[in-house]
Amino acid sequence: MRIHLITPSPSRARGGNWATAARWARILRDLGHEVRVTRDYHGEPADLMVALHAWRSAEAIARFANQYPSRPLVVALTGTDVYRFLHSHPGPTLHSLERARVLVGLHDLVDQALPAEFRNKVRIIHQSAPPGLPRRPAVRSLRICVAGHLREEKDPLRPALAVRDLPATSRLFVDHFGAAHTPDWGEMAVAEMAVNPRYRWHGEVPRHRVRQAFARSHLLALPSRMEGGANVISEAIMADLPVIASRIHGSIGLLGEDYPGYYPMADTDALRRLLLQWEDDPDFRARLEEACRVLRPMFTLERERENWAALLRGLGAAGD
Question: What is the pTM of this model?
Fold first, then answer.
């Protein structure tokens, strides 16, 4: 089967939509299909379209649906689709949802944010991650890793603010990896480093550098305001790196309602208290580590591949 996979991200971008599209392309090829990955669609022959991002890919989705109205169309929902563009740009987003035969959600609560008429289209496919590198945590300090670009949706400087002015006895330090979405964000990160010796922004780095940072770190902080099902959670759990996250749907839908490592979104004081509890309370650390450990089977490549195979079987497109 010829599958056209649409991603709005340029191939040079690290992480995010392009990484998801590249992994899905490998999975679909492993299942016996011919896969073409592009940023747009201009009528090329295809038996099936998989479009990442309902709003940003809306024109490609419309062209495919008009050219092949009876052929299956799968739309993968991002966090900005569900939690922003569905409200700020409802026209194109809703048209994409209407045209899709299947909506792929990346976390278990995504259907709750959709209009009721679309919920029966949703199929959940958790993003996988490879096993982490051998653990070599830092000895003299406790390293909190933040892996995400600096932009509004990520609330990226919240962990830095949380470790400002900690007691001198604290060993907590934040390492932040990710590109600045705008020059202003870069300037804010540099300014924070100038006044906060516990925070270091490393900028955008290759994927292998992030994996190495996970191996050296003790904790991942995910402070986002919105997520569609962050792959960084999968990566951290597969690297045996415990997670502390803002309490938002996108994280609860992966970690579970009863996960012990949440704090209220954008609440610096609450995050500071949680980080200090993690530093000072061995029982809390153990609970967090165990809660992450039991989630590992959700995020294996084998499970993601099985979920895609099941989805395609349901569309009558099982592959060779």
Answer: 0.94
Residue 319 scores a pLDDT above 70: no
121 and 157 co-located in one domain: no
Beta carbons within 8 Å of 290's beta carbon, 6+ residues apart = none
CATH label of the domain that carries residue 120: 3.40.50.2000
Residue 288 lies in a domain: yes
Same domain (yes/no): 291, 147: yes
**Among the listed residues 261, 182, 253, 257, the one whose alpha carbon sits nearest the alpha carbon of residue 222:** 261
- 150 lies in the same domain as 282: yes
Residue 206 has pLDDT above 70, yes or no: yes
Range of the domain at 284: 142-298
Torsional sign, CA 61, 308, 20, 1: negative
Cα(279)–Cα(167) distance, integer angstroms:
12
Dihedral (Cα; 105, 253, 110, 156), 10-degree rounding? -90
The conformational region for residue 53 under phi > 0 = left, psi -120 to 50 = alpha, else beta, is left
Residue 137: inside a domain: no
Asked whether the beta carbons of 70 and 315 are under 8 A apart, the reply is no
Number of domains in the chain: 2
Per the listing, tokens 């026209």 go with 91
